[in-house]
Specification:
Elements: H1 9-13, E1 17-19, E2 27-29, H2 31-37, H3 39-46, E3 52-54, E4 60-62, H4 72-76, E5 82-84, E6 92-94
Antiparallel strand pairs: 1-6, 2-5, 3-4
The protein binds iron/sulfur cluster.
InterPro entries: 4Fe4S_Fe-S-bd, Fd_FixX
Keywords: Electron transport, Iron, Iron-sulfur, Metal-binding, Transport
Domain 4Fe-4S ferredoxin-type: 58-87
């Protein structure tokens, strides 16, 4: 029987292919609600793809091209913080392994 090598998480994620819908983010952060609820730090912590970051001006940055479409941010964000939908057809992540 052949041995199946799974590799590290980083190695497995490197097998993904991304079709980026340039200029059309499928994720928007309501900065006022995020600031009022403190949701920014939560989003930064939970996203496995490090999509969210703290900008120099204190707002929450969104690197939507890296999104794995896992839905974790939607599950934990307080109401009104996120507007999220799947990328347009044929856009976004295509999983090749795992
Ligand atoms: S759906 Fe998953 S990968 Fe995409 S931004 Fe939310 S937590 Fe990150």
């Amino acid at each position: 029987m052949a041995k199946y090598e799974t590799g590290t998480v980083v190695q497995r994620l490197a097998g993904n292919v991304y079709e980026v819908d340039e200029g059309n983010s499928h994720i928007e952060v309501n900065q006022e609600v995020a600031a009022a609820t403190g949701a920014g730090d939560l989003l930064i912590r939970v996203c496995p793809a490090h999509v969210y970051s703290r900008e120099a001006d204190g707002t929450i940055g969104v690197e939507y091209a890296a999104c794995l479409e896992c839905g974790t941010c939607l599950a934990v964000a307080p109401p009104g913080v996120l507007t999220w939908h799947y990328p347009a057809s044929s856009m976004g992540v295509a999983f090749r392994e795992g």
